[in-house]
Amino acid sequence: MIQTHSLRFRMMLLFCVTVGAFLAGTYGIIYFIFDRDVKSQLDRRLLDTANPIVADLIANPTEQDVFTLDLPTQYLELIDATGHVLQYSRSLQRQALNIRVSDLDVSRTTFKILQDRRLGQIRVAVIPFVLGRSQMFLTIGVSTSDIEQTLANFRKLLLTMLPLSLLAMALISAWYTGRSLGPIIDLTHHAAQLTDKFSDPAQRDLATPLPVANPHDELGRLATTFNELFARLTAALSQLRQFVSDASHEIRTPLAVLRGETELLLSQPRRPEEYQTNLRVIDSELKKLSHIVEGLFTLSIADAGQLRLGRDRIYLDDVLEEACQLAGTLARSKSIAIERDLNHEMSYVGDEVFLRQLFLIFLDNAIKYSPPHTTVRVQMEGINGSIRVHFIDQGIGIPSDHLPHIFDRFYRAGAGEARSGGLGLAIAQAIVRAQGGTIECTTAAGAGSTFAVVLPSHEWSELNRN
What we know:
Layout: H1 7-59, E1 74-80, E2 85-88, E3 110-116, E4 120-131, E5 134-143, H2 145-199, H3 218-267, H4 272-303, E6 312-315, H5 316-333, E7 337-341, E8 347-350, H6 352-368, E9 375-383, E10 386-392, H7 424-434, E11 438-444, E12 448-456, H8 458-465
Parallel strand pairs: 7-9
Antiparallel strand pairs: 1-2, 1-5, 3-4, 4-5, 6-8, 9-10, 10-12, 11-12
């Protein structure tokens, strides 16, 4: 049943029960100590009163005038070893206390509580001493009504303080738990709002941060972690929305061309030359569409961490030379020369197909964004335990405000359509990361760009040693 209540109520209940049990135990211990001390003080008072009387009886055995004194709050008796009362104080009014022979202990002073019909409850001390050659006992008693009243008042005070303390603890716990759980309540509300925003495609402002009262405590760190999570989710959702929009736009164009060409072919009979012209257009658009689909598939498996690269012994200079030859046709169509600086063999362990695709992406972009009658330079070198492949063009360059986004999917820093459908650099980055390398870019608007692919060389250097 308790589990159905809120966390705040359960924390308050646990706090109150725990503190209530602690207070009850504390008050019980305090009462026990107070009761013991009050009774101990009464016993010391009895002994302090009895010791002078015993000393006087021993010094003057024939004079027992102490029993003739009128002591209304004290009751004295002189008893022999057989339990016979020899003398008693006037306050007893000729009625002895109920002291049994078994209560007489010659070795020590004993204390008893007696219940008398006339006198009420009495605390009695039985003190043994020797008078002459006879064993005697002096009993001295006082009423316990005063201390019982004091103890009763103290009990009432504790019983009054206990519920008041519990009420105070309940109020304090309600305030403290409410304040402590405030960030969690805000976090829940924020998460609910964010969920609603995620389900609403029209929402764009998704990164409202959760306020952090104290970033150093547990709740503050939890709120900070959730803020980071919300920020990443927001970025991922925005990227996904942008990706879907761009992908649909990229795919829609070749599909529209394919539909138009197909409708044109089917509209009426045509000559074979016309069919060939239309089929060439369809083939070109199908290739573009195939490049886009293959790129999306490569990126999807890379995002899932499932991009598996082969580990074959290859020579990077041969793979790069082959990529340059494949890009040569496009370069010649724009009167662009590809210069190679591949003076020595460079063995490596990697995936030849993906590395060739990687090099073709940079060659394709360099040729695409370079003006005619320029040169694209390709260099390969081993520096500081890594292999660096440079692609240097004399193109239009990349503006500084575009540079942070060049690896985003379907992002283009310049005009025109890339052969990769806007996915080339994103695919290149995925391949290089899977190979354990990095990509560096230096550029200046109007002065060309240099892309450097940096691959770790520990694998090929170990292979060379073997």
